[in-house]
Amino acid sequence: MVMKPDILAIIPARGGSKGIPGKNIKDFAGFPLIAYSIIAGLQSELVTRVIVSTDDEKIAEVARHYGAETPFLRPESIARDDTLDLPVAQHCLDWLAEHEGYHPEILVWLRPTSPIRPLDCVDQAIRLLLEHPQADSVRGVVPAGQNPFKMWTLDGETSIMIPLLGVEGIPEAYNAPRQALPDVYWQTGHIDALWAKTVLEKHSMTGKTILPLMIDPRYTVDIDMPSDWPAAEQLVLNNTRELTMVDPANQRRRLPEDIQLIVLDFDGVLTDNRVWVNEDGQEMVASNRSDSLGLEILRRLTGIDVMVLSKETNPVVEARCNKLKLPMLQAVQDKVSAIRGIIADKKLNHSQVVFMGNDINDLPVFPEVAFAAVPVDAHPAVIRQADRVLSAPGGRGAVRELCDLIMDHLGVRSS
């Protein structure tokens, strides 16, 4: 029987970033930046454990939410701007050995600032290392965009240009055609795979024998400065399956078996998000009778409670909910506190609650419930985080579709 090696993925994520404050848990295309690296480790076929090394309890909380372990908080002494990766890796391995007797054979280093990873790059790096046990490590690389043999430094006193690098056998490499120069590669932050002994015995994050994992340059994203963020985010938001990347949006939850409560936003869910205002300032909205009938059938056949949670204060909301016999809360500015209060008052567990919203102010509610659905015309960032994107728009059949979906899931026939 061949024993699988213990392979530990470590995600370094300190809390004191100055270039982009709070970047590791800042929203990136609908999810905290760190979530992309956590999912990369969790979905790997070969990684056996995923740990986030952080000094920040907020980061640790987010990391745990997305499935990583945070068995310790990193000491402040190795959580500074100038802290190298090596002492962070050494601390993690030493702590796990001392407190758990845990000794992984291979480490996988996943930097949060390179969130756009090919689906298989983690396992590819590990397999490459396993196939070449004489190597110390594997590092992800892409063809370099600029040639270092045509780069210069300046003399500190005279400002005379000095070639950065030379090439043996090519005088004045900086004047040579590109085709005559060696191919060069840029290391990315996507993936490092290394033997634990490289850290513990050779006191290095790479060792001397480093194998390359060639990565498609389209995935080359390194978020270091605020200016890097928008372009990288748009690459994800506008991705139409051109990049088969590790994406938290693909980690959809399933409908729970025990549903006791459905909470609906009002505008954009029970309405189409439009408002008509007459000359007296009175507002009118459009709703869908199919949605109303779906709610009636659902409650009658399943006994599931349904209620409305709305940010707006509007007589229209009250009138519509009264007609549908739906309990409601209006003028809710903090939906998270509201949903937690509702769950506590009804003596429920979050695993028994389904939510339907449509806009970014609904996003904080998603982690508080078991399942979140959205209409097809919801905000793009909300669509990315939803567990189910319905085919119908808000106010035009989306609620009915959710009702039918739940009844089918529970094996209840509506006719």
From TrEMBL:
It comes from the Bacteria. Pathway: Amino-sugar metabolism; N-acetylneuraminate metabolism. The lineage of its organism: Bacteria, Bacillati, Chloroflexota, Anaerolineae, Anaerolineales. It comes from Candidatus Brevifilum fermentans. Homotetramer. Its cofactor is Mg(2+). This is N-acylneuraminate cytidylyltransferase. It holds the Pfam family CTP_transf_3. One of its GO terms (biological process) is N-acetylneuraminate metabolic process. Belongs to the CMP-NeuNAc synthase family. Its EC number is 2.7.7.43. Keywords: Hydrolase, Magnesium, Metal-binding, Nucleotidyltransferase, Transferase. Gene3D superfamilies: HAD superfamily/HAD-like, Spore Coat Polysaccharide Biosynthesis Protein SpsA, Chain A. GO terms for molecular function: hydrolase activity, acting on ester bonds; metal ion binding; N-acylneuraminate cytidylyltransferase activity. It catalyses: an N-acylneuraminate + CTP = a CMP-N-acyl-beta-neuraminate + diphosphate. The keyword Transferase applies. InterPro entries: CMP-NeuNAc_synthase (IPR050793), Cytidylyl_trans (IPR003329), HAD-like_sf (IPR036412), HAD_sf (IPR023214), KdsC_fam (IPR010023), Nucleotide-diphossugar_trans (IPR029044). CDD domains: CMP-NeuAc_Synthase. The keyword Nucleotide-binding does not apply.
